[in-house]
Amino acid sequence: MERFKDISEAQVTRAIVDEFLKDFSDYIKSDVIVVGGGPSGLVCARELAKNKVKVLVLEANNYLGGGFWIGGYLMNKVTFRSPSEKVLDELNIPYKEVEDGLFVADGPHACSKLIAAACDAGVKIVNMTKVDDVVLRNSRVEGVVINWTPVGALPRAITCVDPVALETKVVVDATGHDAHVCEALKKRGLLNVKGCGAMDVASSEDAVCEMTQEVYPGLIAAGMAVSSVFGLPRMGPTFGGMLISGKKAAEIAMNMIVSEAVKI
Ligand code: 48F
Description:
Shape: globular
CATH topology: FAD/NAD(P)-binding domain
Bound molecules: ligand 48F
Distance between the termini: 55 Å
């Protein structure tokens, strides 16, 4: 059997530290920061990266995918309503039509394909990093304030750890039901976040896609964050609206970047 190359512990550590810091330093300024690596955030980031936009995904968890691994009730089948199967085709995600216009895919397969597609398109990802606040200048969101996720889990007595900030032209809040970035504006009375409404699958997905928009200068809401901001009905374990909302958010971000108004 062929022997593994002789590499020391120091070399392994240096490879990790050097490569991480090189990427991190490069993305202290970016075109778009997508907060949250669930289905809407990943689709949005992929679209942007495909269009050569410098995009960073910040994810609080170790793993990406948010609620996309599991459908409902801890069962790992995810559903999609027509016409969102077109996005599944684009991502080469296998699915089955169980009713006219209702499609089912395996959660792990769909989610891992989406993550891989985002990475393949050139999306940079920093995980275990929680967005705590926004950078706000001249009534515009121009960045995010971040800390390592574990810092928030430490006892208060030992958590005097200041965060750092990243600058960007556009922030996308794709943090799901929590609408965490929008909440940072709400607590200052700058944005109303209503909280999502009761479940109504039939109307929810059209509503979330229609209402995906810039909710405050420099800040776009995508996915379930849109439902939370505008009090739209929740949709439960059907994901087409998340994928298409992510695409729309990317389109809006592109337009914002090219518009003269965005200068940092
Ligand atoms: O919740 P999530 O999957 O959001 P989504 O893209 O999709 C919603 C569906 O999964 C489902 C649904 C409709 O089908 O009802 O719930 O809108 O993913 C949100 C991601 O954001 C991360 C979180 O860990 C998850 O991976 N996240 C949340 N808050 C923060 C964050 C934060 N403050 N900083 C960084 N990441």
